Amino acid sequence: MPGSKSTAELYADYKIKVQKIADVRNALAVLGWDQETYLPEKGAGFRGQQITTLSTIAHELFTAPELDNILQALKGNTDLDPVQQKNILLSTEDYEKNKKYPAAFVADMSRVTNESYHAWIKARKANDYNVFAPALSKMIALKKQETDILGYEGHPYNALLNEYEKGANTAMLDTIFNEVKTALSPLLTQIEQHPPVNKDFLHLHYNRDVQWQLGIHLLKDMGYDMQAGRQDISEHPFTTSFSPQDVRVTTRIDENDFGNMTWSCIHEGGHALYEQGLPTEQYGLPCGEATSLGIHESQSRLWENNVGRSLHFWQHHYPRLQQLFPENLRAVSLSDFYKAINKVQPSLIRTEADELTYHFHIMIRYEIEKGLMDGSIAVKDLHHTWNEYYRQYLHVTVPDDVHGVLQDIHWSHGSFGYFPTYSLGSFYAAQFFTAAQKQVPELDNNIIAGNYQPLLEWLRTNIHPFGRYYTSNELCKKVTGKELVFGDFLDYAKKKYGGIYNF
Amino acid sequence: MPGSKSTAELYADYKIKVQKIADVRNALAVLGWDQETYLPEKGAGFRGQQITTLSTIAHELFTAPELDNILQALKGNTDLDPVQQKNILLSTEDYEKNKKYPAAFVADMSRVTNESYHAWIKARKANDYNVFAPALSKMIALKKQETDILGYEGHPYNALLNEYEKGANTAMLDTIFNEVKTALSPLLTQIEQHPPVNKDFLHLHYNRDVQWQLGIHLLKDMGYDMQAGRQDISEHPFTTSFSPQDVRVTTRIDENDFGNMTWSCIHEGGHALYEQGLPTEQYGLPCGEATSLGIHESQSRLWENNVGRSLHFWQHHYPRLQQLFPENLRAVSLSDFYKAINKVQPSLIRTEADELTYHFHIMIRYEIEKGLMDGSIAVKDLHHTWNEYYRQYLHVTVPDDVHGVLQDIHWSHGSFGYFPTYSLGSFYAAQFFTAAQKQVPELDNNIIAGNYQPLLEWLRTNIHPFGRYYTSNELCKKVTGKELVFGDFLDYAKKKYGGIYNF
């Protein structure tokens, strides 16, 4: 009985229970990693079943009344130290949120997700949004139901936003995406008036093995600990963690697209450095988990863009790159290389977008999700709405649904409220990097010298070690002295593209 | 309540419960595979914890009273078909055996196994059996206790033998190992009088990548389904299965020892073909599990030795091998190659022994284990006993404990009764292969032509599909018309070595 135990004993019981759940989830992550990297073709069926079983077990363990009893007994107990108190608070929140979902809803969601995913696959094959629309309607009806289950203040979409980024809401995101529209649009217009930048040489033949070696080299340079991780090949690059001591990245290599591997490798490396920097003594506990998706994305984007697409970064790496691919790059100056890898060009596909137009892609999805949740956008017209937004903000004509509304997997999975974290990640990254440049002596010179240790140390001190102890908002204020603002990203973008496009 | 359900409903419940346990065990197997192949160095600590958690969950699920209730309700129910009845019978046996172990014994065993393993490591470093002896004493005391827990007829060792090979006992093994002594000893004497065979060319430099390709080629030729499996590198080769649709092998490559990869690859391939041939519709149920360790080993050894070390096999493969390694093998005739790969030479280390002297290594371990269990051999003198046996049966002088009593990991793990299954595997293999030669038209000619399909089909019809439906003894009688006898192995050995050593 919890009542008869000391606080320390109860907290020890709590840790055992929660870490056991983490063990199961991390085992699931291993099965997932294997599925994307090494699983033989025919193994998929039974693997799916094994994953379902472990997921069910993790869910059962997490909803067990024994855990509830311990959490109730420890809630608000001030004998616990602040980190322990925070763990209990967050686990209680997680537990109570989990309990809100009626079994019937969970079963419906599972069924509709499956249906909707297969409809999306089918619609893509047919290149016809109408094939997806009926399943998407059901999904959206369920997501609306979910907003009621979870509860919200203000806009119903807030309930879903909060799932991916605690504290995010339409008030905050409307402000930010309005700035995207009003401040980035003129920038884009200025850039479009500039003669086009040549990046054809990035699409010559880049040998697979040399690319692989380059990727490993960059990861090691960044400070990714290869004794606590490894890189493998998968169709879609991702980072996965089984503990801070085993954080794995994957990449893909396109021999006709130099950028594909390079920046995805740096991007995943940024995610992985964060996971490797989480406190091992908080393994499996909330304070050992990433703050939020937005903060996670800030780490990948900071490395990918603020560092990895900077002139400073390539001042160090470009001479070596020319040696690795002499035929392709011997005649290309650093300046032309730098311009090419930062070429801004409005396009149809989000995942191929440059650093600037990317946020229009996200803003469009944000507006659509918000409209779907409050009913101002109809599911059946979604492809038209989509195409109109792309014409308006990105000045491109969507030729068909595969290059339009059917391009992302997210909605078919029921991930509504996820997209905004991608933009939040970039904006946090700019704000963090600006703070780092102020706080770390000689940061830029160290990057020019290929030394990322001072930057990593700053991240390891200011961002990585806290897990969910702070919310993203609290962390941002603590590190930068202010809440998330769009200004730092705008300054960064103006400076960077002003330099490249002469304005 | 089981009472209110139909037989079909109860059986469906049984399947769900048992297959859920299988899912957890197979997830554990994935974690184990990853640990031996790709786990980064620092990941070992948390991985160990994750493995412990999943093991505990599998144990809890298997000892849950709900499963017991269903088993009790279905036991002896003749509405079930014979395979279903067998599954219930075997699951009940497994369940009841599991229940026999008192929690205190399980805890003691876990502690002593850990202690004993570390003592063994330490003893090997010190090259001193006396460092291992105290922990081994404790282990043996526990194993004796285990024989009482499990119960036995006749010799206490029978309880442990039965764990690894159902139905095996000292009466049967005394008979078999007596024949090893009386029939193989004269053969060995005859061979020792022959001028030594040269196998130096097997230890020239064999390129790693070419060896790897050869291994893959051999596995595919054998009929190993690469879409339902894969090969990776590990320190110690092994086969592991997550379902019949995902059966993986590992190998190691020594560039100065051609045989190391080659026959371990064929050996693991034999294990893997068996696992790929188990019935998928019996996934996770006893009739979907390998018959026994002895039968498993029969499949690896049949391919490794009866096929893979035969002249017929290399008549097909040797010309290609000479092309792969022209500098090493151009001047070596097929006949000399065949003699070299079958060279008989008494030696100190079991894992490096040839096909013939191997069984003396096992026989010695069998005698020792039996003696330890009935007290006729004392733990403190074990190294002396060991060395004396090696002098007597293999005519070799053991120079130190690392090359003697400390060479195998098994006892430090508490695996007593395991070793005999290695010899049983070879003897089953000879008996099965003899039967196949009689039953499959043109079997030898097909092997000469590099076509293993008829052999695999025979195995897939006669051995693989039954799982634990038959015991090894029943299976052997069904396939060969008689119980396991030593005679087929002896005939095989006489014919093979008579050919090589001219007697």
UniProtKB/TrEMBL annotation, chains A, B:
| Alphabetized Pfam families for the sequence | Peptidase_M32 (PF02074)
Q: Which GO terms describe its molecular function?
A: metal ion binding; metallocarboxypeptidase activity
In Swiss-Prot or TrEMBL terms, this protein is called Metal-dependent carboxypeptidase
GO terms in the biological process aspect are: proteolysis
Which reactions does this protein catalyse? Release of a C-terminal amino acid with broad specificity, except for -Pro
User: What does the UniProt cofactor note say?
Assistant: Binds 1 zinc ion per subunit.
Q: Where does Zn(2+) bind?
A: H267, H271, E297
Identify its protein family: Belongs to the peptidase M32 family.
User: Organism, per UniProt?
Assistant: Chitinophaga niastensis
Active site positions: E268
Q: What is the lineage of its organism?
A: Bacteria, Pseudomonadati, Bacteroidota, Chitinophagia, Chitinophagales
Which SUPFAM superfamilies does the UniProt record give?
Metalloproteases ('zincins'), catalytic domain
Q: What class of enzyme is it?
A: hydrolase
Q: Answer yes or no on keyword Transmembrane helix.
A: no
